[in-house]
Amino acid sequence: MAMLQFLQHLLPVAYILMLDMDSGLLVTLCMVAAAPVWLLHPTIYRRFWRLETSSDWWDQLVMEQWDDQPWLHNFRMHEATFFELCACLTPVLQRRDTHRWSVIHLQKRVAIALWKLATPDSYRPVANQFGVGKSITGAQFMQVVTAINSLLLCRVVYLQDLEATMVGFAALGFLNCGGAIDGMHIPIQAGPSTSLFIERATSQ
């Protein structure tokens, strides 16, 4: 507290002297006045500047040992489909290493996004699963999803020949119809009152 009061009284004096002294003497005076502050608040050296993580699960287990069954169960696609998807997204998502950072491999970035889409996990467990940071997980997820929408959406979801499609539906009795959306039949175990449950697949 006494040191702070000393500095409060010294600063107005230094401002007054600044009007009548050269720049070299002023700098020396400022350094002498600031030296006690540096002694009271020394630099804190951190043991690390980023958290070390491990990606052994992805590098050694998934990429080297998994077959199609774990891929289907966890990523909802075959391994060959995954690599085909990565090849399609390479023109947009490919990055180069810099002098300070090594980029995350494109396959790992796509896998992070697919894992987030295929599971109800938040960013934190996905980040821990792949050995990356939570903020990096969110950024990679948005980049991959944006790339998929810009490159692949028009190649997968589109109308081939609208007039021919409408003619086909008209022959079935559906006039002015250009498409149909269907659901998925999921079997469930009904309760004791079966009248409350309607089997849509067999009622049509």
Task: Jot down its keywords.
single chain, mainly alpha, extended
Describe the fold and architecture.
The structure is a single chain. The protein has helices at 2-18, 23-40, 56-65, 68-75, 79-93, 106-118, 123-130, 134-151, 153-156, 162-171, 200-203. The chain is 61% helix and 0% strand. By secondary structure, the protein is an all-alpha fold. The model is unreliable at 13-19 (pLDDT under 50). 10% of the residues are buried. Among the domains are: 2-40; 56-155. The protein is extended, with a radius of gyration of 32 Å.
Present the secondary structure layout.
Layout: H1 2-18, H2 23-40, H3 56-65, H4 68-75, H5 79-93, H6 106-118, H7 123-130, H8 134-151, H9 153-156, H10 162-171, H11 200-203
Helix pairs in contact: 1-2, 5-6, 5-8, 6-7, 6-8, 7-8
In short:
The relative contact order is 0.06.
> SSE order, as H and E?
HHHHHHHHHHH
Instruction: Quickly give the structural class.
Output: mainly alpha
Detail the poorly predicted runs.
Answer: 13-19
Please tell me how large the radius of gyration is.
32 Å
Strand content: under 5%
Mean pLDDT: 77
